[in-house]
Design brief:
The protein is α+β, with helices and mostly antiparallel strands. The chain has 2 domains: about 5-165, Sandwich (Jelly Rolls), CATH 2.60.120.280; about 170-275, Arc Repressor Mutant, subunit A. The chain has helices at about 5-10, 115-130, 135-155, 170-190, 195-205, 210-220, 225-240, 245-250, 260-270, and strands at about 15-25, 30-35, 40-45, 50-55, 55-60, 65-70, 75-80, 80-95, 110. The strands form 2 sheets. A 5-stranded antiparallel sheet has the order 1-8-3-6-9, covered by helices on one side. A 4-stranded antiparallel sheet has the order 2-7-4-5, with no helix packed on it. The radius of gyration is 22 Å and the shape is elongated. The protein starts with a helix and ends in a 9-residue tail after the last helix.
């Protein structure tokens, strides 16, 4: 299992909130030096923009996107007669971890060819948003989610790596998911068993109390919540396949009996497994 799989496994716990979305035109004399408290995504509609991060210089042109992570210090300058771009400030979290994207090298200039269809959908939603059309804010959030998912997909496939330099504080966060990778693998390999947090802590070489804190810091949810989510995802898929009885599924997911499994399933999906999908 790769680290990016957590966004699919825990998709119900992903939170994306748009704080602002608008467009701006700057003349050729424009320059700003900033760092933002949230994520900032620019779509360049016209012109060229030079971005300086520490001592490195990058150039973004019409059709490109620029993704800034929170607290990234940069200087932006117009490199043409003027520049025109749409900017979107947003928060992105998984569980209680609102810096989860910082574990991946995403900040940088994204060429339009990588996300062409997703940009088209986003721009259509933005036009509706400007006109204050019904449900336009909801649609804009959905299209931004699709766009971020596509960027993550390209990152996972090795087609994209953000070029902006990571600062030391963000490198500290990277350790969490890297050190938890063996735990993710262990859970997936033993999902058919009853998994106990103490057992996982032993695999990680940590005390149980420290492991729970460490896991939640890295993933935004407790180990128990993560295991429960995976079991419910797997139960849903097995029920949809219509190939197994409830007794068999309970056994396959490490539940001692069908009653315990059905109780856990109903708590999550609000219906018993025997009625799921009807």
């Amino acid at each position: 299992m790769d680290s990016l799989s957590i966004f699919n496994e825990l998709s119900e716990l992903v939170m994306l909130r748009i704080n602002s979305c608008s467009e701006i035109v700057h003349p050729n004399s424009w320059m700003e030096s900033k760092q933002h408290k949230d994520y900032d995504l620019w779509y360049i509609q016209a012109g060229q923009i030079e971005i300086r991060v520490q001592e490195e210089v990058y150039l973004a042109s019409e059709g490109d996107m620029i993704l800034f992570r929170p607290k990234l210090a940069y200087t932006a300058t117009t490199r043409s007669n003027e520049c025109h771009f749409i900017f979107t400030h947003f928060d992105f979290g998984l569980g209680n971890h609102f810096g989860i994207l910082d574990n991946f090298q995403l900040s940088g200039i994204i060429e339009r060819t990588l996300v062409e269809e997703e940009i088209r959908l986003f721009l259509e939603a933005y036009d509706q948003y400007k006109q204050i059309a019904p449900m336009s804010g909801f649609r804009l959030k959905g299209c931004l989610t699709i766009l971020i998912a596509k960027i993550l997909e390209h990152y996972g496939q090795g087609h994209y790596r953000g070029e902006f330099i990571n600062n030391p504080s963000n490198r500290i966060q990277n350790i969490d998911l890297e050190k938890l990778q063996p735990i993710f693998d262990f859970i997936h390999e033993h999902l058919h068993q009853t998994l106990r947090v103490g057992e996982l802590a032993e695999v990680a070489g940590m005390s149980e109390k420290y492991f729970i804190t460490y896991f939640k810091k890295g993933l935004g949810v407790t180990p128990g919540r993560y295991i429960y989510q995976l079991k419910m995802n797997r139960a849903r898929d097995l029920l949809y396949s219509k190939q197994f009885s409830i007794q068999q599924i309970a056994n396959m997911l490490g539940y001692p009996d069908p009653y315990t499994f059905s109780k856990a399933f109903k708590k999550y999906y609000k219906v018993p497994p025997s009625k799921f999908g009807w």
